[in-house]
Specification:
alpha+beta; SH3 type barrels; 6-stranded mixed beta sheet
Length: about 150
Amino acid sequence: MNTAVENKLEELNEKREELRQESRKEAREQDESMQQMSRVSKILDANVENHQADYLGSIKELVVNPASGHVAYAVVSFGDIFGLGGKLFAVPWKALHWNCDKDSYIINIDKSTLKNAPGFDKDDWPDSSSEWERQRSETNQFYLVSLT
């Protein structure tokens, strides 16, 4: 074979290998993103702990931004005994980190700080746009200061 044809075949083989590697990389990335997804039923009632492994509560609800479709907050129940009493906290979803070893979520906050977080009673959820906006503003400010 002449050198020009051999060079062209080598280029084609290199391109084919690049495409295979890109395809494998895309498949790995898709697998990794699927591993980070979870059904809501697996998230609800999951424990929330801090880095010291203190139990802080459990996730009772997820608040979704209807415009973006993203989870904005996890509503965490804290201080309840057998599901009675306690206070609810709208914790920014980004503040929680999945701990797959313990099937729980971790937040970098201690119990005493969480007690002072803005929250609401389970029978008195914010029910208007202005109440949600106030809750969102207070919550974001609290966690911005507490987690930095």
